[in-house]
Amino acid sequence: MKIPFNRQPILETSVEYIIESLNNQSSGDGKFTKKCSEWLEAKVDVSRALLTTSGSHALDMSAILCNVCHGDEVIMPSFTFSSTANAFVGRGAKVVFIDIKPDTMNLDENLIEDAITAKTRVIVPMHYAGVSCEMDKINEIAKKYNLFVVEDAAHGIMSEYKGIPLGALGDFGCFSFHETKNFSMGEGGALLITHKNNILEAEIMREKGTNRSQFFRGEVDKYSWIDWGSSYLPSELNAAYLWSQLEVADKITETRLKIWEQYYAELTPLAEKGYIELPYVPHYCKHNAHMFYFKVSDSSTQMNLIHYLKSEGIYAVFHYVPLHSAKAGVKYGRFHGVDKFTTKESERLIRLPMYYALNEDEVSTIVRNINRFFTTREVN
Fold this sequence. Notes:
Elements: H1 12-24, H2 31-44, E1 48-52, H3 55-65, E2 73-77, H4 82-89, E3 94-98, H5 112-115, E4 120-123, H6 135-145, E5 148-152, E6 160-161, E7 164-165, E8 172-176, E9 189-193, H7 199-206, H8 212-216, H9 236-246, H10 249-272, E10 285-286, E11 292-295, H11 299-311, H12 327-332, E12 333-335, H13 342-346, E13 349-352, H14 360-379
Parallel strand pairs: 2-3, 2-4, 3-12, 4-5, 5-8
Antiparallel strand pairs: 1-9, 6-7, 6-10, 8-9, 11-13
Helix pairs in contact: 1-9, 2-9, 3-4, 10-14
């Protein structure tokens, strides 16, 4: 491909830090893990940030910490990745999907209350494209019904809702550092803990059920098996690579925002002609340019444009197939209410290449080909 969908950021320090970890400590919870955790705690303003082997594992841990059990129900959007649901299905819960809002592609907070039953335990807002869900209303409902809120902030690092970082707006927040995210470990994530009383249980769970973290802090003389746990901590190699990006996080974010703004400006004429619909960011939300997407008129146009761009060496993609329509979604969940927007909007959405190294000329090339696609259709 001339222009791939994604390229991981590789900085001057990336290899240097990885080699340093190889020469010192490559197992988890070393120098670079500590640097990343402290950075996240300060940036997001949470009680504790624990690096994990994936965003999926951060979600898994949050489900356990919420004490989700067989027969419980968890409310979330259907327009999300399977990991959002798997975390709770793995605990025996039923997933209750609700419709999204077509402007932000986030779950419609006005539909949550009607979906609540005596079995509901958790609400899971997923901040699509790094644009926040309406967290004031969601937290108000959670408080009213004594429910947990787990933010799936896989897209959300460096984004804010009314001045508050995403990941700090619920009981737990979950980041992803997959290779397609703004900051990458290849595979990795982080569990963000709001309430201090959840920290010890989370640390024990993450360290194979032992109090090893307490031991290394000098809080106990020996560490031993305390409770159920697994190995959720990533290696220092992953953390070293992540740290090379977090220490210049503002620069990376500013660069991505410039790319996003160039896309928006150059595609505006097509939007004004009614060919496409550009993304919407509420004025009280600060986004992180996690992705640039737009919507076309229908699924046929979506796939034709994706194939056309591919033929020109440009890799654009569709996004989630709604979970409630998938085989596992039918087995483990149910859709509450009417699917007015979830399927319809998902079949119109196209994601364009977005990565730190993407340059102005490449963005203009992509836009020029999109224009050519619609001009050709107009002539025909």
